[in-house]
């Protein structure tokens, strides 16, 4: 087992500190990132997070509220499983410390082992979930004593390495489909299904079980995130300059933006994005992509 130090990228401004690291090579197919967020006492921030893959999160704060899509704002439990999303997550936090761990689709299948569609667009208390008990213990430890990021990263590595996960027959197929959706050349569901060697109805069931959504929704999410990530990395550019090549025109993008983020692009641009903006910059530095859901599971972590 590796005992080398984990390299965390660090962003700090206006009472917010975000630290982000990638997993070691053996866990990179299953985990996309480890991230530590701190908000100073007396500071309260809001953000509107783009769609993402599943996460494990834990934290303690004076304010910790969230809502997915058009759902009501709720108080977030101390330790949660957040399923994959295809719409905006509103977040309001203040005076607290948080840890998060991003899961790839293969990581969800290997470690959580529930149909991803059952948890899509949901935030669930890990204490009432079917997740492995050691994951809850890990989140409890990170919440109670997570200030040492190196010790915390070792705990995360050790916890996931100890989980049972051998013999997952669908893992190679999940990886192939994941890479298919990540490809900027993928222009249709049919082309990805053909690449995966699946008939359309089988492919639909496969995607819902392992990725949370129908393949058409996943394809829309990826082109949307490529466009939004490019814009957020350089907000000085006009929206038209960030559009993915698979959009027919700007009106097509605006319709999908409103359906995904519950607002127009101009409204989003006018809002503060302290967490998501910092995450885009750090993720781009660490993994070469702007969004967690664009993370390439074969990317070297060195």
From TrEMBL:
Record key words, sorted: DNA-binding, Transcription, Transcription regulation
State if Coiled coil is listed as a keyword: no
Q: Which SMART domains match?
A: HTH_ARAC
- Looking at the record, the residues that make up the HTH araC/xylS-type domain are 171-271
The record, for InterPro entries, names: AraC_XylS_family_regulators, HTH_AraC
The protein's superkingdom reads Bacteria
Has keyword Ubl conjugation?
no
Q: Which PANTHER family match?
A: HTH-TYPE TRANSCRIPTIONAL ACTIVATOR RHAS-RELATED
Q: What is this protein called?
A: Helix-turn-helix domain-containing protein
